[in-house]
Amino acid sequence: MKFFSRLKQIGAGNKSSVTLPVTVPVPLQNQKETDTPEIYKVIAEDKLPTNSKALSGDMVKEENFVPDGADEEMLGAADEKQLTERRDEVKFIKGDHQNGDAKIDIGNLNGGKPEFTGMSKEELLKYANDPFWVRLRWIFFICFWAIWVAMLVGAILIIIGAPKCAAPEPLPWYKRGLHAKFGHVDAVKPEDVKTAQKIYSSGVIYELPAVQTYDVKKPDVEAQIRRLVDLYKSSDMKVILDLTPNFVSKDSQLFKDALANEEKRAAFVWMDGASEPNNWKKVGNSSSAWEQLEGSYVLSQFEPGHYDLKMNSTLVRQELGGVLQHLIGLGVSGFRLKNTKFFLVNNNLGDEEPSYTPKDPNMMDYGFFTHTQSTFQRGLGDVLYDYLGIVKNASEDAFLSVAEDMIRPFEYVVSNSGESLGVDLPMYGDFMKTISSSKSDKNLKQQLQQTFMDTGNTSWLQWNFGDVYVDTATHASALALFMSLLPGVPVVPVDSIEYSNVKQDTYSQIQEMRLSPSYMHGELSVFESNNLIAYTRIKGGSPGYFVIFNPTDLPQLGNFTVEHKLPEKMTISYLSENYNNNGTHLAHSTKVNLNELKVSAHSTIVLTYVPVKSE
Question: What is the edge-to-edge ordering of all strands in the sheet holding 296-299?
Fold first, then answer.
């Protein structure tokens, strides 16, 4: 009974088993150690008697103990059977020989089956050379490397077969190079080719007389156009025609058809009545814009005997569409339309109101009125876009634009298109006049930004070099360099100072820079500092251009690096021809410190740089 009392005291925390304290004797120096563990059987706590008095004695069996069967009777037969089934063991393993510590290994505490502990090394070695396992190992080894090689080959094939990043498409021909502007078609001569080659022109502009616009299918007019196209066929230059399609003469087939058939009169502003419909005047004078004809009045805003067309008429659309398609078939690649603001008139034909700021004080003159009824009518952009579609359907490389300042670009916007204009290359603004003026007090940066803003910020403008003042103090090459790297196409009349006073080397350098990625696809940012105006053209992965123009009479020191986050060191790409005339000695391809650079008076400098990475 003392034995069970000691078990209860020691193993009260675990109902499954108990732990017995063991005192392991320290072996003497010459005594032989044994590793045999001492093993004791564990008795479940729930089988122990609850009588504390019976368990309070000594656990050691007395020497004169006489077995009387009481212990077997106390346990009972059933309990003995359960203990026999549960072979839980407590192993006492001798540990440290110095201090007599021992390790206790308790068997399965849960009374279930022993947990799986895996195979020993000796057991595994029995199968190391077994043919089945050897073959299986080789199969796994070969499969692993086969899969790895297949993944590597697949990755290489994906890289090779993947579509490459498409390079930005080059600009169409009519946006890449400059356009040389000549006179009438009938004045063309063989020397014109060499003249246009001086500025490395991508297109040459000739004007077709207004009376011939709808006569291009006549043999003599067609032969004239063919000669023009053949003249430039061996070069890289395309032929562009200026057309005046908004009126015809009284001898034209369109007008003759209208006289003979009233249904054909829908192509004209043709009004029946005994008096003039309104107070409209001919453009540029005080004569009435109406001509009486057989009891009717026909609108004639231009020359006498020439009658205005309604450009949104189905009849006119068919006629002008046929003209454009025929000219493209002859080899013409672009068109600039004149008088576009007159294409539509108000159907109400109301009187024109006097202007608050008349251009002419004569109350009977054209300049005294506002012309809100006869110009810039709603739907103008849609009409032009319709003709643009005809041109693009005939040739994707052809373009349609205007030959004059649009003045009111918002009237040229296509309906339901945001800010898209109905033409390819708009011409707008007085920036060329302002930058070449010696007396202008306008802010160049603001005017330039406003010009782009008014045309939707995405338009490729025409810069009319014919607007440059003849008496400008700025050297022609400085204006050519500054304007040619802005988004747009310089139109250079061959009789202008921008043609005659600029060397071919300058235009050669301009052409080279216009073909660079930074120009064709780069972003534009405009700056100003100390009376200087400048802008950058930059595209990721390509050197950027920094163009500075000094419109003043004195050299100016710029301060662009800090405020505009530009690098201090830049490389000179090109200088205007007058840059070193005042004692300055700068050379191409040399590096300069932007903070110390003084830009010569009325000059332009073009620098290249690598953009500063923003942190």
Answer: 270-272, 296-299, 290-293
Among 570, 521, 513, CA closest to 541: 521
Q: Find the length of the chain.
A: 615
Taking the CA atoms of 9, 10, 16 and 17 in sequence, report the sign of the dihedral they define. Answer: negative
Mean pLDDT of 586-603: 92
- CA 477, distance to chain mean position in Å, is 33
The tokens of 589 are what? 């391809």
**Residues 163-199: pLDDT tens digits?**
776 667 889 999 999 999 999 999 999 999 999 999 9
- State the Cα angle at 186 between 183 and 189, rounded to 5°: 75
**Alpha-carbon distance 433 to 130, whole Å?**
97
Rounded CA gap, 405 and 402, in Å? Answer: 8
Place of tokens 């360099």: 481
Q: Would you state the pLDDT for residue 183?
A: 96
Query: By C-alpha distance, which of 299, 374, 365, 316 is closest to 341?
Result: 374
Report the alpha-carbon distance of residue 341 to residue 227 in Å, rounded: 32
* 270 bridge partner residues: 298
Nearest partner of 188 among 228, 151, 233, 143, judged by Cα: 228
Identity at 26, one-letter amino acid code: V
> pTM for the whole thing?
0.74
Give Cβ neighbours of residue 569 (< 8 Å, ≥ 6 apart): 591, 592, 593, 594, 609
Q: How far is CA 24 from the centre of its chain?
A: 85
Rounded to whole angstroms, the maximal C-alpha distance in the chain is 161
Q: What per-residue confidence (pLDDT) applies to 147?
A: 96
Please give the Cα distance from 389 to 363 (Å, whole number). Answer: 42
